[in-house]
Every structure is written in structure tokens, then in C-alpha cells.
Design brief:
This protein has about 325 residues and is of the alpha/beta class. The chain has helices at about 5-15, 25-30, 50-55, 80-90, 100-115, 130-140, 155-170, 175-185, 200-205, 210-220, 240-255, 270-285, 295-305, and strands at about 40-45, 60, 65-70, 70-75, 95-100, 120-125, 145-150, 190-195, 220-225, 235-240, 260-270, 290-295, 305-315. The protein folds into two domains: about 5-190, Rossmann fold (3-Layer(aba) Sandwich), CATH 3.40.50.10170; about 190-315, Hypothetical Protein Tm841, Chain: A,domain 3. The chain has a six-stranded mixed beta sheet, with helices on both faces.
Length: about 325
């Protein structure tokens, strides 16, 4: 099927069963030659944006690799998030993710520079992944003046908000230097808050101790996760029950906006109802549409099923 929203199509098919494998060709890369923008945008598969918006901006996402036992998959290309989770739950192997190879970025940059003046490459926080370092190595090999690599210092929809701002700057006629300045300013205007219904995946991956998870479970406490200015997750307290945790992340996002115009996005790893609740409350408090996005396989395997996360950007800073 030829569609601008492949994940929407896959979500519909997934209602009939579990999709373990899929193949999504990057139609964006094939049609970029017809776009008017002089600067192309490259991201990686951990950065979350609404599909229609990513298509409109001409975003080209270089996938990370997911490993489970001896099997390897390209994130969002070879396997869906639900298919990968199904494999995790049905086996005992601990999932791993790895950054794209430098050669993958080199190939992407060279293809884009055939018909673009420059490339802005925006990636998951360097504190969380070596992806941005691989991109920088590729930029040095290809053309460091025409390829600018941005460490978003953010994850998921936080980096998505930054990518959106970069797209707006490019559309307004900004050159590469100006785009870099916009990126450095905007990423300081974004914060991310999240919570998760289950710590099972975190325990399985060694990020949370079994004792801590059991204690929180017995007390019916849900953790609040706050990401710092470098994109690293930290403890932001707990709430009594998951519903109160959802309200807590809404309050934190609104508090960060501090009455100023703001833009928000919500991402979830299987809790559509919880994400819709958070988005609705944010629309009431902040105004404007708040997109809700299904997390990809990499984020899902790190935070676990049932997570809801919000990113908020103060506008006009």
C-alpha cells in the first residue's frame, strides 16, 4: 500500500492480530527532489512526530537497530512496536537497541545533498544514545559545512517539538547557521514529563531493581519521570495510583508553560485512553491541538507498556 501514514495503516491491521514483520519503504526520500525547501531534515527512529507532519516537513528518519537474542530488526522498518513487544513477552531474551551505523548516515546525507543545499540532522539526546556521535562522524566524512548535526538533548516527542521548530525555521528561509541557532534556543524551551503503569520492562532491562518495583506496586504508587536539560530521565516523585500520575504530569507541563503560549505533544506505549486523557486536559489548559502518538519499538522496550509522556514547548521565547 502507498500511503503517507504507514503506521496508521499498520495500526488498523493490528486490530486483527499481531504484526510481527512489516516493510515500510521510505517514500519521503524518494519524493524530496520535488520539494521546495533548500535544507533537508534528517532524524532517527526514536524521534516522534505525527506522521502527516513528518511527511509535510520531508523528514527522513534513519532507523536504530533492535536486537532480541540472535534476531535483529530495523526500528519501524522491519517490525512494528507491538510485534516486537509480542516477541519480548513470549521469550526470555532481554531486548537491546543500537545506534545506526556511520555508513547509514553517510549514504543518507550524500543522497540528500545531490539536490539540497544542506542537511540538518536532529537526534536523540547524546546522554542517552551514541546516535548523535555516529551522525557527527558521518557529517565530517561527507561535508561538515553542509551537514549540521544537532544533539536535541531530548527524547521522543520532545525531540519532535524541536524538529517541528526547525522545520518552521527552514520554511521561513533560515540558512544553516540560523537553523542551528534556532535549535540551540528552542531545545532549552522544551521539557518532558512522563509516567508508566508497569515497571516490568525496566526491571527486565536492569534499570529498576525488583525490590523497588515490588514496593511501589504494593503501595499502588506510580513513578513520575522528569527529564533533565541533557535528556536523562530522573525521579520526579510518585503519585498514588496511575490516574493521579497522569494528572501530575499535566500539572507539571502546565506549570512549565507558566501562562505563556505553549505547544505540547503526547506519546504512549499502549495506553491510548491515558494518552487521550492527558491530551484533552492539556488542550483545556494550554489551548490548541495536542497530538497523540504511539511510541516506537525502541521507546516501548525501554519504558515498558502503559507509559504516557508529554513534551511541552514554551513559545515566543
Amino acid at each position: 500500500m502507498h500511503t503517507n501514514e504507514p503506521q496508521r495503516f499498520l495500526a488498523s491491521v493490528a486490530e486483527l492480530g499481531v504484526i510481527e514483520h512489516s516493510k515500510v519503504d521510505d517514500m519521503v526520500l524518494q519524493q524530496l527532489a520535488g520539494r521546495e525547501a533548500s535544507i533537508a531534515i534528517v532524524t532517527d527512529s526514536t524521534i516522534d512526530l505525527p506522521e502527516d507532519q513528518a511527511f509535510r516537513l520531508g523528514v527522513v528518519a534513519v532507523p536504530l537497530t533492535l536486537s532480541l537474542g540472535e534476531a535483529e530488526f530495523l526500528d519501524g522498518v522491519d517490525i512494528s512496536a507491538d510485534g516486537f513487544v509480542h516477541r519480548i513477552l513470549s521469550g526470555s531474551d532481554v531486548p537491546r537497541s543500537s545506534q545506526p551505523a556511520v555508513a547509514d548516515f553517510v549514504q543518507t546525507y550524500r543522497r540528500l545533498l545531490e539536490y539540497r543545499e544542506g542537511v540538518v540532522s536532529v537526534h536523540i539526546a547524546g546522554a542517552m544514545s551514541g546516535t548523535v556521535q555516529a551522525a557527527r562522524a558521518a557529517a565530517r566524512e561527507v561535508d561538515p559545512e553542509r551537514v549540521r548535526v544537532i544533539d536535541s538533548c531530548l527524547v521522543s516527542v520532545g525531540a519532535g517539538l524541536l524538529t517541528e521548530a526547525i522545520g518552521e525555521a527552514i520554511a521561513s528561509g533560515a540558512d544553516l547557521d540560523e537553523v542551528e541557532r534556532v535549535a540551540e534556543r528552542v531545545k532549552r524551551e522544551i521539557r518532558i514529563f512522563g509516567t508508566v503503569a508497569s515497571l516490568d520492562f525496566a526491571v527486565r532491562g536492569g534499570r529498576v531493581s525488583p525490590t523497588m518495583a515490588k514496593t511501589l506496586g504494593r503501595l499502588h504508587l506510580s513513578p513520575i519521570i522528569v527529564f533533565d536539560e541533557h535528556g536523562k530521565p530522573g525521579k520526579g516523585g510518585v503519585a498514588l495510583g496511575f490516574d493521579r500520575a497522569l494528572n501530575a504530569i499535566v500539572k507539571r507541563a502546565v506549570h512549565f508553560a507558566d501562562g505563556a503560549p505553549a505547544r505540547a505533544m503526547v506519546v504512549h506505549s499502549g495506553d491510548q485512553a491515558g494518552a487521550d486523557f492527558v491530551a484533552a486536559r492539556l488542550e483545556e489548559r494550554l489551548g490548541g491541538e495536542v497530538p497523540v502518538i504511539r511510541a516506537g519499538a525502541v521507546l516501548t522496550t525501554h519504558v515498558g507498556l502503559g507509559s504516557v509522556t508529554v513534551a511541552v514547548r514554551r513559545l515566543g521565547g
